Amino acid sequence: MKLVFASNNKNKIKEFQQQLPATIEIVSLEDIGCYEEIEETADTIEGNSILKANYVTDKYGYDCFADDTGLEVEALNGAPGVFSARYAGEQRSPDDNMDKLLQALSDQSNRNAQFKTVVTLNLNGKQHLFTGIASGEITLSKVGNEGFGYDPIFQPEGYSATFAELPSEIKNQISHRGKATQLLISFLKDEI
Fold first, then answer.
1. In contact, 175 and 166? CB cutoff 8 Å
2. Domain residues of the chain, as ranges?
C-alpha cells in the first residue's frame, strides 16, 4: 500500500516510516509534485491536520495522511499550541522557539506541558482521526542532541531525560507522534 504523507519534513517522514509495517510505503509531497506550502490556518491542531490531508486528497486525488503537532504549556494557557513551529517567528527556528519558550517560563514554577499530535487519514473516501498525547514538563535548559523541534527541553513523564536524550526506539514508543502513529498502524493493519 502506498500512502502520501502530507509533509516534506524529512525528520517526520523518517519517524513515521520507521514505525509503519514494510507493506506500507510513505510517499512525500515532493514525490507527488506538490511543492507549495499548505496553509495551516485552523485554530486547532486537529483543524490543521484535517486541512493538510484534505488539500492533498482534493487537489491531487491521493489517499493520504497528515499530522499536526503542538506543544501546549499549562502556564502559558496552552501556548505555543498551533503556533509551535513558528513561535519565535516565520523563520521557524527550533533554537529560537526553545529560547523564547524558556524565557517565557523563566519566572514560572509550573512547567507542565504536553505534546499533542493529531493524524488525519483520508482513505477510500473516509476520514479518520488519531490523537496521541505525551505529558511531561519543560526543562530549565536544552539537554541532548537527538530528535528535533522542542525535544531538548521536553522531559516526558516518568523519565529523567529529555526527548533529545532518549534513543529513538524509546521515544517512538512514548511520544505523542508515536502514540498517534500506533493508532494509525492498528487501523491500517485492519484495512490491509
1. no
2. 2-191
Cβ neighbours for 141, distance < 8 A, ≥ 6 positions apart: 102, 153
- Alpha helices, DSSP H, located in the chain: 10-19, 45-60, 94-104, 168-174, 176-191
Q: Which of 28, 27, 26, 36 is nearest to 8 (CA)?
A: 28
Digit-coded pLDDT (tens) for 144-169: 998 889 999 999 999 999 999 999 88
Question: Is residue 151 among the annotated active site residues?
Answer: no
CATH classification of 2-191, choosing from 3.30.750.24, 3.40.50.300, 3.90.950.10, 3.30.565.10?
3.90.950.10
Surface-to-core class of residue 106, CB atoms within 10 Å of its CB (0-12 exposed, 13-18 middle, 19+ buried): exposed
Task: Return d(Cα 82, Cα 79) in angstroms, integer.
Answer: 8
Query: At CA 184, angle to CA 92 and CA 23, rounded to 5?
Result: 105
DSSP helix/strand/coil, 171: helix
pLDDT in tens, 9-33: 877 788 778 777 788 888 999 999 9
Task: Please identify which residue in the block is written with the cell numbers 524558556.
Answer: 102
Could you say which of 68, 96, 99, 190 is catalytic?
A: 68
Q: Does position 103 have pLDDT exceeding 90, yes or no? A: yes
The residue written with cell numbers 486537529 in the block is: 46
